[in-house]
Amino acid sequence: MISILIAAAAGLLVSILLTPYLIRVFSRQGFGQEIREEGPAGHKSKRGTPTMGGVAIVLAMVVGYFVAHLIQWMSGSKSAAPSASGLLVLFLAVALGVVGFLDDFIKIRKQRNLGLNKTAKLVGQLVVAIVFAILALNFADSHGLTPASESLSYTRDLALIAFPSVFFIIFCYIVISGWSNAVNFTDGLDGLAGGSAAMVLATYVVIAFWQARLSCADAVQPACYNVRDPLDLAVVAAAATGACVGFLWWNAAPAKIFMGDTGSLALGGLVAGLSMTTRTELLAIVIGGLFMVEMISVVAQIAVFRTTRRRLFRMAPFHHHFELAGWAETTVIIRFWLLSGICCMFGLGLFYSEQLGVGG
Fold first, then answer.
1. Tens-digit pLDDT profile for residues 259-299
2. Which residues pair with 48 in a beta bridge?
3. Where does this protein hold Mg(2+) (predicted)?
4. Distance from first CA to last CA of the chain, Å, rounded?
5. Does a structural domain hold residue 189?
């Protein structure tokens, strides 16, 4: 438990102190955000706001994780070494953050709102997903558990739905690209993605910690969880939660800096990685319900427009629909945060109720 608190505190501290430094550096370099011409009129004033602030989130998350392990090592703890699962989830987040960084950098250099083309971004996500999928099925512990499994999961693996190795790679790609794009779509208002991601990641701190307390590695019982390194996954999620909260201090409306694709793709990858390593892939859809709805709104908008030549929403992602309907930006943000919090609480309720059902 102490390592979780240390990771969260270190992530928060690094993020809240590093972000203003990045604001000054990026402002001097002219690394400003370009704004969509067809977007809400109020967003025009945001043009030139420093972007790529996701660098602070990624660095704070990594520092928070390793500081927690360093302090454990200095205190002589037997579990001081980073785990395969924790490192793999960090790799996924950082690698997708690099893809997002390239996208942001191209936008800045070309001074347009489009960075990497769709093909380049999808190829980047595909390469990362393939590496993750291959590594996730290796590094078995003494109980034979690997960081991820080939079975689809809800709150634990569903034995009746298992993927052959090739299809598991495809499944990983769908999950990783889906979550990274979902968070990316949500990142359209000041603090919306950062605040929502902090809630989702905090939920995963609780889930992973609960799995560690009821690990089958400690005592085999009907309600135990076959998850590799659950406590270390809680440390990763805690470090990322602290990083998001620290960044949100500067990203909340009116934002002094945007996370850009660097942050949104990294956070989406983090949610994807945590869902697979904690065996909660289907439950994650509920926990990250806001992100899912935002992505669905984009898909639905495109599908309806291509078939009927009419728009389902005034603008997608659908947080912009409410802005164009006359809602103030802060009203949309706060109400969407509330929706995200409701999704997280409902997801936690489902997780706990399933555990009670199995244990009873």
1. 999 999 999 999 999 999 999 999 999 999 999 999 999 99
2. none
3. 184, 261
4. 26
5. yes
